[in-house]
Fold:
Amino acid sequence: MERLKPVDVVIVGGGWTGLLMAKEIVHRTPLSVLVLERGGPARQDAATMDELDYLIRLRLMQNIADETVTHRHSITGRAVPVRQYGSFDPGTGVGGAGEHWGGVSNRYRADQFSLLSHLREKYGREVLPGNLTVQDWGITYDELEPYYWRAEQMMGVCGKAGNLRGTIIDGGDPFEAPRSHEFPNPPHKMSYFPTIFRNAAIELGYRPYPIPTATLSQSYRNPDGITRPGCAYCGFCSRYGCMIGAKAQPSNTLLPLLANKKSFRLQTGAWVRRVIHRHGKVEGVSYVDASGQEKVQPANVVMLASWTMNNSRLLLLSNIGEPYDALSGRGTLGKNLTHTVLHQVQLFFDKPLNLFMGTGGLGFAIGEFAGDQVDRDSGILRGSEIRANTNGQGPISAFGRVPPSVEVNWGPEWKKASLNWYDKVGQITCEAAHFAYRENYIDLDPTYTDKLGDPLVRLTLDWTNHEKRQKAYLEKVMNSLGKAMGAQVGKALRAAEDHYSATQYQSTHVQGGAIMGNSPEESVVNPWLQHWRIPNLWVMGGSAFPQNESANPTLTILAITYRAADAFVDRYVSRPGALG
Structure:
């Protein structure tokens, strides 16, 4: 095993968090930084209108023949490998999922960051489910707000403020937490389908607002000096790289700032297998390079910045921290696995909707049913925003959507109906908040391994009655909106059924496993994403979220990364040690 020349900081993962942290360290300190990315370089060919290759065959995703996950519904069940892309699509390569994301950039509601305290205060301990393991984050919204603003400026997020320094603004989200600034860019020009939704929402007494998105509505120069053009509404956004750079991606916002820095190096094809540690301190990582050679990379600081599952898996493989035990409730590593409770309702119209054009977050949403703004009689404690947007629908993926009145699903009659209804089918979507429960967690599978022989991650995850009630409650709201839009309402798609399905797409917003919190007894990392027990180890990304809110997590991931970068640069570098 070859031992390489030491570096000051090694970062595992070359996506949003890894490259953002690298940029902050390289530009603000003399430290040497090496980013290890197991995938390949950022793919320039991803910025093409190839629906078959990228939307259907998911060319930008992790190769599940090399590594996948196993899933079971309960601790007594048998886990089986997920052998096809299912409930989430993890990205790979430089930029990671930040290259193929859609760009929706919501902030979390203020009470999310102190959720346990909030729920106890509002409902009382006796009302909360006994298996609920939600936690306070260890930070408040007010502490994070400046970092939200930095992330929005970096990406050039488009939107309309609804709460500007405590003043409610018409046209924005009146339920959002106070923001210090208007969005960096104005909302997009809206297409036909979201406009119908907006009009119907107003008619029903709701206050719709444009969905915040990191796909530019106009040309923009960010504070780092990166200039990008406005969106062309081509419709090839989610699952693709942007052809013109209008969508914020790590490859067009962060990589240019690192390209000529002598203290920075990016190594692709580096499959990190272990974090090397001894006597409460990390000493580097071991990895296999693209040629299959095993190498040791010594470093003074190790930062894990890969996807949620991979962060937790690497900690488990490296025997860092106490694995969570669902039976006893002891341990922290792997606890609080959450996903998104995704619901969609199909709407059938009598005329074309021009859904072939759009962009990642182009649309309107309502916030009347998000957070805890739900009826007490509904039996749920937290709901979801509801939105209608046009991401752009391709001719392959959009073909075959027919109303319930068409009773066949193949043959000449089905083909005729599919042609007739093409471009006349829209959908309303909600991504409901998902609570953390004692029985949902991450550990290592005792049977199945990856291509290198290391154990796979095992997910123990199922819906509870709360998610099923969320479905029923929110579906009624979406159905009423669909009828007000003048549509024939079809069946609900991707909704929470009796059990969580590993084969039914729920978004790639999987959170937890290495959560942040106020103490090492309840969390893996402190509020600055520094490992509680190993001060020169930092763990960043969605794995730090104690639970999942009803919003895309990317903006919040970037905000807590900016905050961690400030703590590292301004405090840790001059005086290494625990920041708590």
Remarks:
- Residues 162-247+341-433+463-498 form one domain.
- The first strand starts at residue 2 and ends at 3.
- The mean pLDDT is 94.
- The chain has eleven helices and 22 strands.
